[in-house]
């Protein structure tokens, strides 16, 4: 699990160590981590450090201090280092260390930003160490001009320069992921003590590149994370496995109320997603024409035109491929939500939900649908506002509805009403294809239907009961993203269709589980040798 924190949480965790006079030690650990990441990155590209150039854009706070120390370590490895000081001052000890190591210093107040930007953009490595967790808003004045110019030069340069953000890209809000332009997009963000929330939420995540967390010794003082990301090991532990004596009912039955005469394909794709995600059985409810299509495409599905009350299931999927004019389907959706069973509520069901929900109801809006939902709840956010602050928006929707809210996008965020958030970014932009969301709803529905057997599994991982639904939805988003990526890989990195994502799901599931099982076997044979 990758854990992320607000800037304040990290600073509070640093406090006991700062109070014992370890501030410089922490900074040097951070700087070592950053310098080592640069060296490793160059090695991985078959490049050395001796004679290569590095330019550090430096602010006046501790973030600038990290950057200057890191550059002095790189100078000791033979790199040609230049620092551009954007403030009237710089961290004194770090600047002294940098100068002792032979680094060249430019001051932004004495030189035209354009000339300094041109020099920085010619470097092999640029370190962005202007602002860190102490930032208030975005870059201003000549620092903003400098960074905008470097970003523009690098955008047109064909990607030779490697950009590393120190702790976080300057101009990205550490707590919210909001972006205050200009921001220099990083290839790699080396972040200290724990990831920052803003690196795991869009639009901040767009600028972070790969995120590497460097421990600096404050970890035991960190609180419960406010944002978490499930990694492959978590997936392996949390995905359900059928018991030896399982039967289709014990494995979970999902009821699907999706599709309409206008959008029949959504029903098929939702069912295909569910069938490929380990559910014991799928029961489909909808208009006869759609049911016929579902039968033809997925003979495994039991179809009926009946009511929700007549169908025994463990969870419901409602809403994909339905609009306000599909009254009968909407009534079924409302009945399903009223049943008290776990529900994934997608697309057309979102406007038809009661105002108050429980966390077992998982809403799956994209940004436009989330804005409409918030507006129905009396908020003023439009789609642009949601996109500019996804983390705050998804949390607000969950808090206001009491439901679990999954916001789809390049980064998928899942908020529980408690404020706990999961952030998954396992997919590929090829997933932005019609019907992809229907498959996702099917996957999450299937996992909800199987959740009855899984309570213990989640509590063992420290997931609170009310947050379990968000964890299940995050698991679904991760699986769907990885399946999309795998489908694209099978197409030599080319496009995928929604059906292709569904087809890739079983193998993706299998690979993730096999990874963990072989790990487990290894551990077991080590700790419990056969006698
Ligand atoms: N406290 C510590 O000892 C450690 C801090 N660390 C680093 O320190 C960073 C936090 O350091 P600071 O608290 O000094 O904060 P920053 O380095 O993020 O920046 C704060 C400085 O920038 C100025 N500033 C704030 N917003 C600005 C804006 N929009 N435009 C221009 N100037 C602005 C402030 O007046 C202040 O002088 C972390 O991100 C991390 O990189 C790490 O070295 C680990 C140890
Ligand atoms: N740029 C992107 N990168 C990765 N995944 C994406 C991107 N854009 C969309 N997705 C994912 O693709 C799916 C799209 O769902 P949705 O918008 O509901 O599509 P549709 O309504 O056409 O089925 C979601 O799982 C979303 O997270
Ligand atoms: K920075």
Automatic annotation (TrEMBL):
Q: What is the free-text note on the cofactor?
A: Binds 1 potassium ion per subunit.
What are the boundaries of the region Disordered? Answer: 483-531
Q: Mind listing the UniProt keywords for this protein, alphabetically? A: ATP-binding, Isomerase, Lyase, Metal-binding, Multifunctional enzyme, NAD, NADP, Nucleotide-binding, Potassium
**Can the keyword Transcription regulation be found in this entry's annotation?**
no
Q: Which domain of life is it from?
A: Bacteria
Q: What is its EC number?
A: 4.2.1.136, 5.1.99.6
Compositional bias per record (Polar residues), positions renumbered to this chain: 505-519
Q: Where is the YjeF C-terminal domain?
A: 231-512
Recorded catalytic reaction(s): these are:
(6S)-NADPHX + ADP = AMP + phosphate + NADPH + H(+); (6S)-NADHX + ADP = AMP + phosphate + NADH + H(+); (6R)-NADHX = (6S)-NADHX; (6R)-NADPHX = (6S)-NADPHX
Residues annotated to bind AMP: 408-412, 437
UniProt entry tagged with the keyword Metal-binding: yes
Residue ranges constituting the YjeF N-terminal domain according to the UniProt record: 10-224
Cross-referenced SUPFAM superfamilies: Ribokinase-like (SSF53613), YjeF N-terminal domain-like (SSF64153)
Taken from the record, one Pfam family name reads Carb_kinase
Q: Where do the annotations place (6S)-NADPHX binding? A: 62-66, 132-138, 167, 266, 321, 366, 438
The protein's required cofactor(s) are namely:
K(+); Mg(2+)
Record InterPro entries: Carbohydrate_kinase_pred_CS, CARKD, Nnr, Ribokinase-like, YjeF_N_dom, YjeF_N_dom_sf
User: Which residues hold K(+)?
Assistant: 63, 128, 170
Relate the protein's function as given in its record. Bifunctional enzyme that catalyzes the epimerization of the S- and R-forms of NAD(P)HX and the dehydration of the S-form of NAD(P)HX at the expense of ADP, which is converted to AMP. This allows the repair of both epimers of NAD(P)HX, a damaged form of NAD(P)H that is a result of enzymatic or heat-dependent hydration.
Quaternary structure and partners: Homotetramer.
Q: Which family does it belong to?
A: In the C-terminal section; belongs to the NnrD/CARKD family.
Q: Which HAMAP family is this protein grouped with?
A: NADHX_dehydratase, NADHX_epimerase
User: What is the protein name stated in its UniProt record?
Assistant: Bifunctional NAD(P)H-hydrate repair enzyme
Q: Which organism is it from?
A: Pseudarthrobacter scleromae
């Amino acid at each position: 699990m990758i854990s992320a924190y607000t800037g304040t949480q990290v600073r509070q965790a640093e406090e006991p160590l700062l109070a014992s006079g370890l501030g410089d030690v922490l900074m040097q650990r951070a700087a070592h981590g950053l310098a080592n990441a640069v060296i490793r990155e160059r090695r991985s590209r078959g490049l050395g450090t001796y004679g290569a150039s590095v330019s550090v854009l430096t602010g006046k706070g501790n973030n600038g201090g990290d950057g200057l120390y890191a550059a002095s370590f790189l100078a000791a490895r033979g790199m040609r280092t230049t620092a551009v000081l954007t403030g009237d001052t710089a961290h004194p000890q770090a600047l002294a260390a940098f100068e002792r190591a032979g680094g060249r210093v430019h001051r932004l107040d004495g030189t035209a930003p354009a000339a300094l930007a041109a020099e920085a953009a010619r470097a092999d490595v640029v370190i962005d160490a202007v602002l860190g967790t102490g930032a208030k808003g975005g870059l201003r004045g000549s620092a903003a001009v400098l960074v905008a110019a470097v970003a523009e030069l690098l955008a047109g340069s064909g990607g030779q320069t490697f950009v590393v953000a120190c702790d976080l890209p300057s101009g990205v809000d550490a707590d919210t992921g909001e972006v205050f332009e200009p921001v220099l997009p990083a290839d790699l963000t080396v972040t200290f003590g724990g990831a920052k929330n803003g690196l795991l939420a869009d639009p901040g995540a767009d600028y972070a590149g790969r995120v590497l967390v460097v421990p600096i010794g404050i970890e035991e003082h960190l609180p419960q994370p406010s944002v978490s990301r499930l990694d492959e090991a978590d997936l392996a532990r949390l995905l359900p496995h059928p018991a030896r004596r399982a039967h289709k009912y014990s494995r979970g039955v999902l009821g699907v109320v999706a599709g309409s005469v206008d959008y029949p394909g959504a029903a098929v794709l939702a069912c295909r997603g569910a069938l490929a995600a380990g559910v014991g059985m799928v029961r489909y409810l909808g208009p006869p024409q759609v049911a016929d299509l579902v039968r033809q495409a997925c003979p495994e599905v039991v179809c009926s035109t009946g009511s929700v009350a007549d169908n025994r299931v463990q969870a419901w999927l409602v809403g994909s491929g339905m609009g306000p004019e599909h009254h009968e389907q909407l009534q079924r959706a409302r009945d399903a939500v009223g049943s008290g069973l776990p529900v994934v509520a997608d697309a057309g069901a979102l406007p038809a939900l009661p105002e108050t929900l429980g966390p077992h109801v998982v809403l799956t809006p994209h940004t436009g649908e989330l804005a409409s939902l918030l507006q129905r709840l009396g908020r003023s956010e439009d789609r642009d506002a949601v996109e500019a602050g996804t983390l705050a928006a998804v949390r607000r929707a969950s808090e206001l509805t009491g439901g679990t809210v999954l916001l789809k996008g390049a980064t998928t965020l899942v908020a529980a009403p408690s404020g706990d958030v999961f952030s998954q970014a396992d997919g590929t932009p090829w997933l932005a294809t019609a019907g992809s969301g229907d498959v996702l709803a099917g996957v999450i529905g299937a996992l909800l239907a199987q959740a009855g057997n899984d309570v213990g599994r989640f509590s063992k991982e420290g997931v609170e009961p009310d947050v379990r639904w968000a964890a299940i939805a995050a698991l679904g988003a991760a699986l769907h993203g990885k399946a999309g990526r795998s489908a694209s890989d099978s197409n030599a990195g080319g496009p995928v269709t929604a059906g292709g994502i569904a087809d890739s799901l079983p193998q993706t599931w299998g690979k993730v589980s096999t990874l963990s099982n072989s790990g487990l076997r290894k551990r077991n044979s080590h700790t419990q040798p056969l006698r």
